[in-house]
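The authors assume throughout that readers already know how a fold can be written as discrete tokens. The format is easy to grasp once an entry is in front of the reader. For illustration, here is how one protein appears when written out as sequence plus structure tokens:
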Amino acid sequence: MRPLVLAGAAALSAVLLAVPPAVAAPTVNGTKTTPQKVDAQTKQILYYLDLASGPQEEAFSVRFIPPRFATSGRRAEGESIDGPRKIALQGPGQLGQLIQDPRFSTPCSDRDAAFHGYATGPASVDVLLPPNSATTLAVRYLTGRRAPWADGDYRLTFVVEPKLVGSYALGSPFFGKQASSFPKRTRRTTGPLPDGRLGAHLLVSSAPAGTWGDTGTPRRIQRGQTVRVRGTLLPRTAGRRIDLQARAAGGRLRTVDSVRTDRRGRFTATWKPNAIGVQELWARYPSQPGGLTADTTSCPLRFQVQR
């Protein structure tokens, strides 16, 4: 029986040695955001990610993913924040190269003044932490040039990944470093939330349906045909004036109808085109009492008007 006991113990030891040790570092402790609320006066947002290392040096990357937003669930118009503009470690450690992804969409009109958001893609940065250290990764984003919408999403997702994204030459702290081995970790911030003075967000559709932005061939309609426009103002507010505007592509806007929102913030308007060629329809919230900043739809409805 003795040889059998020894053989069993040896087999058990071999199994234990074959099991890789648990990988706990780097530790992702949580996120913070400042300010807690954004409005027309907010120019930037700071996001923070708390990190800590164990008894060994850690090399990894952190990916920043801003939220995408769309109008009425359709075209993704851009990011609700434009950045990152500055990245720093508040504590020990080193930052490597910042790799910016290409933008994920293009503006949906040549009317740049109406483009509400930005098309900046996610970005990644390499991080090197010394043993037994705690630090905070801070990243600064601009909020954009327009007042935020009530339904705007200003959360930022941090993805801590066991890889390095940059390329490093001799003399860099990252030269020759191997990325740590650990499970990918994802953390999303909780805010900030749009509050205070906001931009008027106009959601529009039409019958017959126009082509949204420059994503396809303009909808063909006849000159003089009635186009009925439906829309919603966010935040939903009654009695607000909405202007329906039209223009030839690249031309000047002219108001073709003015209406008021109902108690649910909804509105309807009509347009009968009298010019041949490509025409665009825009909804506009003009400056008026009520606390909202004047704004327009970011993407027009486009039509090919025929004889």
